[in-house]
Amino acid sequence: MERQLLRRGLLAVALLLLAGCDNQPAKQNAGLVLEGKTMGTWWRASLAGVDKSRQNELRTKIQAQLDGDDRLLSTYKADSALSRFNQSRSTEPYAVSEGMSDIVTLSLRIGAKTQGAMDVTVGPLVNLWGFGPDKQPVKTPTQAQIDAAKALTGLQHLKVINQAGQQWLQKDLPGLYVDLSTVGEGYAADHLARLMEQNGIGRYLVSVGGAVVTRGTNPDGRAWRVAIQKPTDRENAVQAVVDLNGHGISTSGSYRNYYELDGKRLSHVIDPTTGAPIQHKLVSATVIATTALEADGWDTGLMVLGTEKAKQIAEKEGLAVYLITKEGEGFSTWMSPQFKTFLLSE
Question: Each residue of 249-279: b (16+ CB within 10 Å) or e?
């Protein structure tokens, strides 16, 4: 998960510096800003009304929890829970945690609603194109290689079993490889928000990479302001600013995590249908949802679909969506009516 998420994580931190309370005058006991690394990206917690004497305690709790999430979801750690499932060649039910079950259940639901565009089984293709634990290829994969990897993918080959308080994953392809990096940040951000609540903190902005959750108000008693960046890797210019009002937000973009191969710019966003990086002009999809996990799942699926199909899905499902599309030398934007309710004027 680490290399795949790094650029996206750096983007999110840059935005939060603008979105949080850091540009406000310092106030005694107004709050804390804590940050660190996890999953190959950055986490950040802006906490209002929290005394600075708690910073070491809270930082330790946050880091320990996020390290646990990484041990659950990482495809880079051979001993993570997900890696052990991927390494297993058994097609019998495989016992997993409730958290893992929840993530895969939501991923399968969004996958079905996006006609397979959001597919957590595309791990073989992610690895083939060099966006997983494997090294980047030195030449473009052949169609035969792509077809072989595609043969090991498909949401229909994965299911979740819940029975008597126990959860299992089951695959009917021994070589099925699940990659949850597309929803890992959202899950960890929601988990971090729950940790704040458990520690008596009700006013916060927390993020893991590109996934953000807020609750309450900032130290000045105003809405937490979260920015969506313009789609470029050369500047941190703001495209739009929103007040999440207790919701989660996640952005998927094709303009940060990429590399050049055989004269082509290849995005980390893989289309399960073609088995190759996306080629359309949608460069950013932002989703606001009840949880960051749900937002993180939808933004990936919409990025794969492209602008027009993404609009159709957003309208059909009533999603709060903001799309940025490359148009000639510039960009065009589109937002659903549900997204407009979160928008703040600069």
Answer: bbbbbbbbbbeebeeeebbbbbbbeebbbbe
How many Å separate Cα 120 from the centre of its chain?
12
> Could you tell me if 14 and 29 are in contact, meaning their C-beta atoms sit under 8 angstroms apart?
no
What secondary structure does DSSP assign to 22-57, as a single string? TTSPP-TTSEEEEEEEETTEEEEEEEET--GGGHHH
Q: Alpha-carbon distance 260 to 239, whole Å?
A: 26
Q: Half-sphere exposure (CA, 13 Å, Cβ side) for 314?
A: 27
Query: Which residue is it, tokens 């359309």?
Result: 280
Distance set, CA 205 to CA 168, 187, 251, 282 (Å): 33, 15, 16, 28
pLDDT value at 17 more than 50: no
Whole-structure pTM value: 0.87
Burial annotation 97-117 (CB, 10 A radius, 16+ → b, else e): eebbbbbbebbbebbebbebb
Residue 41 pairs with which residues in a beta bridge? 38
* Per-residue pLDDT tens digits for 223-272: 999 988 776 555 566 788 999 989 999 998 755 544 444 445 566 788 99
Q: pLDDT digits over 20-50, tens only?
A: 433 333 344 468 999 999 998 899 999 999 9
CATH code, 81-178:
1.10.3980.10
Sorted by where each begins, the domain ranges of the chain are 81-178
Sequence-separated (6 or more) residues with CB below 8 Å from residue 96: 81, 85, 104, 167, 168, 169
> Residue 96 pLDDT more than 60?
yes
Contacts of residue 102, defined as CB under 8 A and 6 or more positions apart, other chains included, come to: 187, 293
